[in-house]
Amino acid sequence: MHRFERYLHGRQGWFEEAHGTGPTVAYFSAEFGLHQALPLYAGGLGFLAGDHLKECSDLHVPLVGVGLLYGEGYLSQRLGADGGQDDTPDPLDRESAPIAPVTGPDGEPLEVAVELEGSVCTVRAWRAAVGRVPLYLLDTDHPANPPAFRAVTRRLYAGDCALRLRQEVVLGVGGWRMLQALGLGNAAVHLNEGHPAFALLELLRERVAAGAPFEEAVQAVRARSVFTTHTPVPAGFDVFDDALVLGALRAYPDALGLSSEEFLALGRHPGAPEAGFNMAMLALRLTGGANGVSARHGAVSRALFAPLWPDLEPSEVPVGAITNGVHLPTWLDPDLAALLDRHLSPVCPGWREEHDLEAVWGLVDGVPDRALWEVRLALKARLAARLREGQRRAFAAGAAGPAGLAAGGALLDPGVLTVGFARRFSTYKRADLVFTDPERLRRILTDPERPVQLVFAGKAHPADEEGRRLLRRVHGFARDPAFEGRIAFMEDYGAASAPDLVRGVDVWLNTPVPPLEASGTSGMKAAMNGVVNCSVLDGWWLEGYDGENGWAFGGGETAGDRTAADADAVYALLETEIAPRYYDRGPDGVPHAWVALMKASIRTCAPRFSARRMVKEYVDRYYPDLREGTAAWASPVPGVGPVRAPAGGASPVVP
Q: Could you say which of 3.40.50.2000, 3.40.50.720, 3.10.450.50, 3.30.470.30 is the CATH number of the domain covering 2-77+87-324+614-622?
């Protein structure tokens, strides 16, 4: 508690030293992954948002988070005997959760009104303290609301398009109004994906209501906002039917001085105007900066959004890139951190505060191989114990037979080379790539001299039938006795179990179809813990792989189905490089060549893919100049010059 109090109230941090003081940035996101006590996340987007808030707290960046309080969370995964996913709610107990109601000067709960479909929805807020950063979570489960409105914040990513639209109106419009009620109306806005983009409409409405002409209001909103996109394909953006949008936001066209068609044009894709109201198009038209989440994703996004800037070459489209990072204090194993303390601190006492500096991590090479290997063995034993205990409980409850015990990991051996795969079960992520040739895989896993075992984890979106079928297929292989219990599926992967998995395997496998991996962060978490990546050359690994810190395959563009070629590449790596190096032990029993790989993984990935490096880039490149309180934006693409307004953004008549 003394350390925590010192953290909260101690000396000034990086932001004050580098930038002084300035207005707050409001970080809007549909999900936040902070801790299992707050089930407000579905996957990587949420944990990226949570790590962003944590790092802003560490660096003293003046930022607040804005999200939704999901009373039933996302889903708690339970698998049937056939691998079928049972989507049970993950309810939040407001009384015991680490949140407090937001109150006004009179001590009563602070409430704002949001117009939805011609009626008033009452929204209150809860506050979670992420260190120094407050996170305001909006809640519509209010006695004054009709049942349909009370259900708006019940579940994350659940329901039909109408419910999803209501959620995004509450998040954007309600979120900005709550900030106004809290006295934060001067905040800049950072949109984490397009879900909260209606906040920009509310800022626009305020400017117009204050007497600003529409074009001037648009420029003012652009000057104080940034949009981060995480999606590499058009189908990944939320697109709503025109009638739904006009029904939900019926007061906005008149308030902005626009006709219905002019208003809808703010969300039109120039190449597909008939498709509906696109939240990414709205965000791009009303923000002054935009970025992808890896260098390659930035290039993919420029091509994707090029129709908005028809007079520019795709390479000149002003969408930049800041590669994602992960919060090292959260994801670095405490035992490994203690080992690093013993060997790094004598040379660099402040290494924890300077963990985004590559020079600091060069000291990892001085850690004794045996000491690092012993930590690795301990982490593997912890993962195996977690899986066995889960299966013991399931068996005691009558929920698992012999095949189920094997599929849950009860037979895993901590001494065997262990490969981890944890992703949302979506077809493009290809969780079943390694099962392309089951017989070849069986020979690899059951090799008596150099055995291998696989641990899978992840959830399928409740509405993704293809993803659910994929999950059943993988689970079926885990139950197959031909694989001798060397395949396990970790059930209900989330904040509680993720640390043990990303730290406890030897190799992290990533197999998406390029270029559909926008970034990826789980491999970063694994790498900083000495886990070696084996990944398609896509997303962050294109920047992280140096030829000596892991393995890569299949990065080039390939016509047609690339499944067989990529599967063969994975098999060959396991047979000829990964397993031989892992089992090549010295006289002391330590695999020194493997430990060298572990050190290279830590040394090269920990600083470059930390949230500290990421947040500093956002502050220096994309956030307004907080020192002066002005809204001066750097060009998102260095060398291009001033930010260009996208097509249709500067006039009420939007093409």
A: 3.40.50.2000
